[in-house]
Every structure is written in structure tokens, then in C-alpha cells.
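Subject: Sanity check before I submit

Could someone independently write out the C-alpha cells for this chain? I want to compare against mine line by line before I put it in a report. The sequence has 318 residues.
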Amino acid sequence: MWKNDRFIVKTCFIILALLFWKGYYAFHITYQEQFQLFLLTSDYWIDKCLHPGGICEYVAEFLTQFFHNQWAGAIILTCVLLCVQALTYKLMPATRRKDWLYLSYLPAILSWCFLCDENNMLAGIIALVTTLAIALIPRSIQNAPLRWGCIILLTPFVYWIAGGIHWLFAVLTLIQELLLWKPYKKAVRIAGSLLFLCIAFLCPYITSFYLQYPVIRLMTGIGYYRYPTGIPLNGILACASVCLALLLSICLPPIKEKRKRIAKGMQIAALGILGWLGIYYACDWQKRKSNVLRPLYIHPAMGQNHQNGRKGNTIHPA
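---
Independent answer below. Compare away.
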């Protein structure tokens, strides 16, 4: 069993995600599609490109328009969660990632919890995927000055593409510089890490002079949640879990061969328990019972009445 544990766990994750989004939480998918406007026009694209994170918003809205088919919505959400898991796994050190493989599922599960709230947008997870993918670029550069120059250039790029989640990019590069790249003196690596954080702070601060958004929203993201009254806790935890998975995979020692079965079993058990508890408490089943998130459809008689010129058409709940 343990020879194929990676395949079995990933298959179970895919099946459970599909069953959840299509079977138990399908009304949430329909709600997200019906309460969003997406325009496939050049003006709409340009408008999205004119603020930080707008490109990830555009991609998320493009995908959300397919949620009118619940199976399509479930498949898209499952694929996005798998991308979070795979990219987190790629960020972990090559010598440790196999031993601590199941730590990479923690950000995916917390992203799942984030998406369970109807006021949290898919754009937040698309931005997370984009940030993780770009964070792999400096990881592949061995030369320190070249790597630092790449990070300095990529930080404002990540900010404009993904928005306020660029802080995660800065923190990930900081962790890697301090704990993975050790040819240079510690003082030099600390100075470089502080420089990356300063650039990450300057990006939204400078942007605030040109865009009419509060600085706090420019720093924390614009299109990640429907109502800008606060920062969703699940979103913060999803980002923090990526850093935690990277830190643990670096700091924890390799697992001895005779203890790998026990270690893998404990990781899977902890992952299952935390995942069930997190998703259970992130969902609001009362909204389904009270018809708050039930989809709307136009009554068949409405189209006929419109053709006959009659008034009094209404939209009936499903």
C-alpha cells in the first residue's frame, strides 16, 4: 500500500473534492456564477489591467462563467486546488519533499476552506497559484547576484499580476535566502531579505499615489473578497500554511527508512482530521436550508409572456 500511497492519496483528494463541490456544495458554485459579471471585451480587459491583481481577477472571472455547469465548476475548482498542492510540493527542498510530501496538501485544504465562503472570490486562489508559480523562478537560479536581481524585478511584477498576495512571494524568497542558500555570510543574506521586504512594501505604497484605493486594500488585495470590510482569516491561513510547509520541510530532519510508514500514516491521519474539521466549520449549511444561496432561474412562462407583450413577469426561486 505504501508504495502507491502518493497516488492513492491524490486520487482520494480528487474524488472527495469533486463529490463535495458537485454533490454537497453545488449551490455555492451556481451562486458564484450568477452573482458575477464577465465581459469578453477589450475595454473590460484594459479596466482589469489598470489595478493590482486585476489580471488574476480576469482569469478567475473567466473560469467562473463556466460554473453554470456544476460539473465544470467542480472540475475547475478541483484542478485549482491540485495546482496549489503541486506548486507547494515543488517549492519544498528536493531532498526532503518526499519525506514530508503531505505537508503540501495543507495549503490546498485551507484554500478549499477559503472557497467555501460565498464572499471569498476565486481570484484569491488564482493569485495564490500565480504567486507560487513565479516563486519557483528565482529558486532555479544558483548565482546569488543574478537571483537577487531577478527577485527585485519579479516583486513589482507579481504585485501587479496577483495583487496584495505579493507579500507571500517576498516571505517565500526570504525563507529560501536565509535557510536554503548558505554560501554567503548570514549578514549579507539578512540584508538582501530586508531589501525584498522593503520593495514589497513600496509597491502598494507608490501605487496609492496613482489609484484611488485605501493603502490597506492595496496592500492586502482588491478582488479577493466580495465585500472589502476585512481580510478573510482562511485566506491568511492559506498563505501562512505555504510558508509553514516550506519551513517544516527545511527544518525537519529526513525520515529514516524504517520509520517512513509510521510517519506517512501520521501525516495522512493528521491531514484527514484537519481537513475534515476545517471544511466542516468553513461551510455554512444553514444558507442552503434557508434558500439564501439557491440559484435563480427565469420561469418558462416569462419568455412566453415577453413574446406576447404581457407584463407581470417575475423571477422564481428554484
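---
OP: Matches mine. For the report I'm noting this point. Confidence is low (pLDDT under 50) at residues 295-318.
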